[in-house]
# Entry
Amino acid sequence: MRPPRLLETTASLAAVVLLTVFSGAPAFAQQPPQPLPTDQKGCLGPPQGTERSAPWAQQRLAPERVWPLTTGTGITVGIVDSGVDGGSPQLSGGKVTAGVDVTAPGGRADTDCYGHGTFVAGIIAASRDTTTGFAGVAPGASILPIRCAKLGEDGSAPVLTAASLGDGIRAAVDGGARVINVSASTTVDDPKLSSAVSYAANRDVVVVASAANSAQQGDPVTYPAAYPGVIAVGAIDRDGKHADFSQTGSFLSLVAPGVGVTSIGPGGPGQWQGTGTSYSAPFVAGAAALVRAYHPQLSAGQVKHRLQVTADPPAAARPDPGLGWGTVNVVAAVTRVLPEEAGVLRQLASPPPMGPVPDPEGEGNGRMVAVLSLVVAGALALVLVPALRLMRGGSERNWAVRRTVRVRSRETGP
# Structure
């Protein structure tokens, strides 16, 4: 006589429960971040993927090592760009102020159709979130959005002018920014833009600017990056090599990750991937925010000096035309003692020891899986206990078990 099919039914039920548990996440959360569109027309849609672990740029710079000392709290970073979406989940909760729209007097800039400014702001100050390994360099900093360009009438990319960049820098200074990020450039040495950079310098504001992406198109000098006092930032890839598109020149100050870097977008949760010196500059701006928060006695010029001399140096003599003073080193920029600053700095705390990059799956996602595992175990117990009792009764009735069936559990997950 064949044994009852209760065990087969129980195994099938367990498989269904496990498949339901591990496939219940939204589809977009199971995908990695998608590249930003290169032919974007109109507004950028919400991200279609999620970075589950720490992105390579965050692993390389390891800003979380200095977060026990400072997260940039108290520092406002001005983003002279396309606006910043203050409702993006990792920027919500009052992190983004109303800002200023210099293209529309009296307008706000805490929305972002094009998405460029939101991506930049995320690299600087995105909050930590247990659903993702991505976070900004200075998650405690505040963001002051300054919109200096809007989409073209045909939905094409925003058109910037040297004059609008100058207006944006001035608005950021007047709005209380201690650090300003300009991920845009022009080849025009415009008096209005130059005057705005001087205006920031005279008010002790750090200005960080992208070097631009035209190294293979003649490698022209770009502004505001080339103006004295500005921290001009180029791009490196994940191997630490100069990105072939990244502008070179004697004006280059530093380099930072700029190939396949991760950040957020407007309109919803998740992340995008982007490439360009536009996305290298905010890593340095975030580092500057950390330095300004931890060393408030330092002037803007001293902050620039500290970022340069604590950078990971290039193999060639510094400054190198393609790498400047080297790759920004967030931990050293905050913690290193410089002899030339003697008498200026307070006693420095030692950074915490280097450890593994936090994995969100070991935090929020891990807790979720643990809870669900307990639920599954309880459900299986309710089925298996009666089954075992029936089997024991069956054995007493000479139900012979003819074979052992091994069930291979298959686990699917994000």
In short: The chain has nine helices and ten strands.
